[in-house]
Amino acid sequence: MNFGHVLTAMVTPFDQNGDIDFDATRTLVNYLIVNGSDGLVVAGTTGESPTLTDTEKLDLFRFVTNVVDGRVPVIAGTGSNNTRATIELTTQAEQTGVDAIMLTTPYYNKPSQEGLYQHYQAAAQATSLPVMLYNIPGRSAVGIAPETIIRLSEIDNITAVKEASGNLAAMTTIINKTPEDFTLYSGDDDLTLPVLAIGGQGVISVSAHIIGNDIQEMVQSYQNGDVRRAANIHQEVLPTMKAMFAQPSPSPAKAALHMMGIPVGDVRLPMVPLTSDEKLQLKKLLPPHNMTEAG
Length: 295
Description:
By secondary structure, this protein is α/β, with parallel strands linked by helices. The chain has helices at 22-33, 54-68, 83-94, 113-125, 137-140, 146-152, 168-177, 192-197, 208-223, 227-243, 251-259, 276-285, and strands at 6-9, 39-42, 74-77, 100-104, 131-135, 158-163, 183-186, 202-205. Strand 1 (6-9), helix 1 (22-33) and strand 2 (39-42) form a beta-alpha-beta unit.
């Protein structure tokens, strides 16, 4: 399924008590849609999914879907390292009206490739929605091998993968050996242009909170054959992309949004907000035309 080219892995706004701030969520959703986002991934790692309860996730899915009102696809992060829990949350998420499901690689318990296959197969069979795999070995301790992704792509409703392995050769193999309608997204902002060049669909981005229009212009320039323009934009936005990961994500993204006049609150422990010095360093790396007096 084609979800567009630039999807934002959306932060979850919190209020002063650390609860989900739904008013701020409405503001953020509307801002992202008019600033380059073709779709939204809700309650992924950037959305601090490890610290959200299932009830909070479902409330968030329901609310975001209502605010979006069909303007862009909403993809719900429902994966965990517990297959039964993943199936339960996935089936509940389907009832909230989301358009698709994203399932992260089971983390910590280090399953084999056959275990990964059966985990994803079981979760996909539990929903009629399109399913996106999420390969992120840096956070999960194991990666989904290209051969396993290729095998999983044969399951009808497994339609995409977010690839955050950083391995362009592996991604090329996946693109080459999966069905024509199976799409691969970069999970690393700074690899967006290289992934497009090998046949990828686009990016699921943290930086799109800040430079969504720039990333969208880069993608469209490449798609329209203006590779030089795409390369120039890539070079311009790379410092901002790096800045979003200078400290553990999503702390920089939340701080940057505040600087832009879009307050989304702090992060939940065990993540911590940026220090004053870190905020100063961040501000130097952000595009000045996006900054406001806020923050």
